[in-house]
Design goal:
Layout (H helix, E strand, L loop, with lengths): L3 E6 L6 H7 L2 E6 L11 E6 L5 E14 L21 E10 L10 H6 L10 E3 L1 H8 L6 E3 L4 E3 L16 H11 L18 H5 L3 E4 L5 E4 L1
Parallel strand pairs: 1-3
Antiparallel strand pairs: 1-6, 2-5, 3-4, 4-5, 7-8, 9-10
Length: 218
């Protein structure tokens, strides 16, 4: 069973941003032998001040990595770490990077608002309410103030209708901004009244093959 974790790092001690910009995998230091972490687990990498945000989603590809197996990433340390033959690391492969600006849904304040207890000062497994938020950061309830209509989930289809100039686009843009939805997750489509089901789903039409025999193609 896959477990989910948050690993914190001090950007002033280890430049995780530069490391993941140049490497696909890094080795995360662990005090003692890793306990409870297994290959395939998902780790969210939290960078402390000045970011105070989760910046990366990663996957554990190897546990209990020894000093002689460690990826050469010493240049990302601000101070050379103390390592001996008993030092152990967890290898993380970058799956996704999150923005460092206000569009990032995983700031410490937002995590606290959605179930995180205390500060992120050590490696911790996550579950329950906070994990639900991390997995679905844009599914929180929305409120359309004009009529106080509760939108139960932003992923569901919601139709705003009315004659031109009544504020439909304005309202949608406001909801997008209020919920810090990244621009790359938003697109606009125009549907013409003459569009049919087959324009979206497809259709089977008659054709002629190389031997002039009738056939049908999708």
């Amino acid at each position: 069973m896959v477990k989910y974790w948050i690993f914190p790092t001090n950007i002033k001690k280890y430049d995780v941003k530069k490391a993941f910009n140049e490497l696909n995998e890094i080795d995360w230091e662990w005090d003692g032998k890793p306990q409870g972490v297994h290959e395939g687990d998902i780790v969210y990498c939290y960078a402390a001040k000045p970011y105070s945000k989760i910046l990366y989603k990663t996957k554990v590809t190897k546990v209990d990595v020894k000093k002689n197996e460690k990826i050469n990433d010493l240049k990302y340390y601000q101070k050379k770490p103390d390592m001996d033959e008993n030092s152990s690391f967890v290898r993380l492969r970058k799956l996704k990077a999150y923005p460092i600006d206000d569009s990032n849904p995983y700031s410490l304040d937002k995590l606290h608002d959605n179930g995180l207890d205390g500060n992120i000062q050590g490696k911790r497994s996550v579950g329950g309410k906070i994990l639900n938020y991390i997995l679905n950061p844009y599914s929180s309830n929305l409120l359309v103030k004009k009529r106080k209509v509760s939108l139960p989930n932003i992923d569901k289809n919601t139709i705003f209708y009315g004659v031109p100039g009544t504020g439909k686009s304005y309202r949608v843009k406001k909801l997008i901004k209020e919920n810090n939805i990244p621009n790359e997750d938003v697109f606009r489509a125009t549907l013409h009244p003459e569009f049919s089901y087959s324009d979206f789903i497809g259709q089977i039409l008659p054709d002629v093959d190389d031997e002039d025999k009738p056939t049908y193609k999708y």
